[in-house]
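Hi there. Long-time user, first ticket. I'm pasting a complex I've been working with (about 748 residues overall). I'd like to know whether the download I got is complete or cut off, because the file seemed smaller than I expected. Thanks.
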Amino acid sequence: MTFLKRYPNAAKVSKANFIVAFIALAIGGLFGFIQALHRTNVFRGFFNSGEYYTLLTGHGVLLALIFTTFFIAGLFVWGVTRSLEREPENMTFTWSWFWLMVIGLVMTAFTILGGLVPDSSIRAAVLYTFYPPLQAHPGFYIGLALVIVASWMAGADWFWSYNKWRKNHPNERIPILTFMALFTMLMWYVCTIGVAIEVVGLLIPWSLGWVTEIEPLLPRTLFWYFGHAVVYFWLLPAYYVWYAILPKLSGGRLFSDSMTRIVFIIFLILSTPVGYHHQYADPGISVGFKFYAMATTLLLLLPSLMTLFTVVASMEHGARQRGGKGYLKWIGKLPWDSPAFVGCALAGIMFAAGGFSGMINASMNINILIHNTIWVPGHFHLTVGTAVALTFMAISYWLIPQLTGRKLKFKTLALIQPYAWFLGMTLMSNAMHRAGLAGVPRRTAEPEYSGFAYEPIFGTMGEMQWQIAIGGTILTISLVLFLWVIAASWLGGEKSDNPVDDHIPTPLSGVEHTPPILDNIKLWLALAIILVLLAYSFPLWEMVSDGIFEPGALPRPS
Amino acid sequence: MPNKESDSEKQGTSSNKKLVRTLIIIGIGIPVLVELLTLFNLINVQLIGDEQKEMVAPEPVTETRTFTEGDTLYADYPSSFVIEQMRIKVTTSEWRFEMSLFANDAGTKEKQIVTIDSLRLKSGKVLQGKEAMSEGVGQGISLSFKRVLPMGDIPQILYISSVQRFSPDSVKKIPSKARLGNIPIRYERE
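Hi, the file is complete. Here it is re-exported in full:
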């Protein structure tokens, strides 16, 4: 019986979230295509350079905040419902957080797109990080606040389900799909405090004119308190898929249940107190706290390396079940003809590359080499742009049939899609990294200077620009393929009681070998809070201690 | 019949294998090649060095004088003008270029005349200029110039002319072309 038949209410909510996610993906992706052609000077006819920043804001917000959040919500509704074997506790509450997220999204998107309307006073070309002194229409900030609050409600919904399940299963271990979702949300609660204070306490009053001035350092610090952990809010659901589903897609079983839980615990503890590595170049923060952030950031390599081991071991197990032999020959026995498997596997491979460039970003001194250059987008298009986005697209080929009761259509196109994404992203990101090393700036419509020529280490600027444009075009084609396959399957796929093999086998080293302390939510949450206090309490206190009317302090009332 | 079915199944499997092989070669092979070439070139340049580049002398960079706020136009002339202010003011509905020139030549025996002939923007568009004359002899001159810009366009070259007296009998209108440097852009709330 499909998930749809067993849990029709949850399936409806999950599908609703995915629909919004895919619409955001389509619009944000289109903006990205236009940007790639514009800033490389391949084609500047769609919009002018002033409007570029509206597109850039739209691209960042719609993809990195909206597509991710809604997809994660849909994924977790599926995962928590399935693993706890119960529908959401109260559908009114569940639908209310969904619709609140949608209202917030519409407000935010409306203010961003207002920038494309001539003579419009509603604008929000503040980029995805919305730093002051860039100021958006109040609707932008209010919309984002609503999305965040609604996401808290979504997390509360899953904790509610877990608490109800716990009453009926007092001695059981937390099912792994629920464990991963709950720990992701705990990390989300810890990290969104910063951005909520920034948006509600500082930016909304400022945008409404209730305060006249804002010193940028405090809002930036509060944003980056949230800003690094948010990348793990995106990444952990990709890990969710790699741990829980990818082994099955490979034909095998998850290598270790306890390794999975340990990784998620480490991310809960370490995701937030690292934010200063985004502010290495900011004045007003002592180098000691930046160093602390660097140390904790480099520690974050550990859970990713553990994931590399566990996931590859699981895939190897699957390949050997399918007849694979030898030290490396087993790789050929993996299901390279399965769109869901291929997307997840290629996403994981690309994440490794993104991790290496991330090590450069994390290291305080080397970071200066690439700070604010296009190297940085090169890095995060490998991580969130592929490890997360491609995983989400790939697993949709496996999830959507379960939610709709329809088989996948156009399987050949679905198979081509992840390979095309991998090709396009390698071309684009490779050139972005090289251009960044030559000093080409990020976040600008026209990176050329008059009377100055960049000096790439090898090759020419022209080659790199064309490589970015071609890579971006291939990515757009891949995106179109994905949207076509999903839309066609959703609306016209062959109905079936068993559209996909949705059985997930138990891990090789199961929960019976997992130490019970790993399920101690309160312990790990307390540790996470302690580390955050160590990283942020003193620097934040310093920033606000000058008093409300002094520089570096809270905004002055008008 | 069973043989025909298994033949068509075999064909389907075989063409699927061909497709997968092609996708792996293009979708994974090309990226791997690109990355290997990048690594090779980086090592080549960083460790082995590029002899040709080392032998060629660097090209001389032509210095281009640019003018910004606080700079003096016609500095070598009897009547000079200071760029008091030069800004781009941005609101939600327009971009506006504002410039004010000032000359405090109390020693002159003439009324001063300065004309902004035109303003050339980065896009190539040219905006109309403006003339200003001092109120009286030796009273200095202040010229305030404001023009609405196309959104996102930046002024690059200021074409200006001023009447200069070189001797009791020699008065000339001297044109000048001033390449503008960084113009601060300031956001204004409406």
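A couple of notes from our side: Chain A touches chain B at residues 48-51, 119-121, 123, 133, 135, 209, 336-337, 346, 353, 412, 415-416, 418-420, 422-423, 426-427, 430, 434, 445, 451, 457-459 (CB under 8 Å). Confidence is low (pLDDT under 50) at residues 553-558 of chain A.
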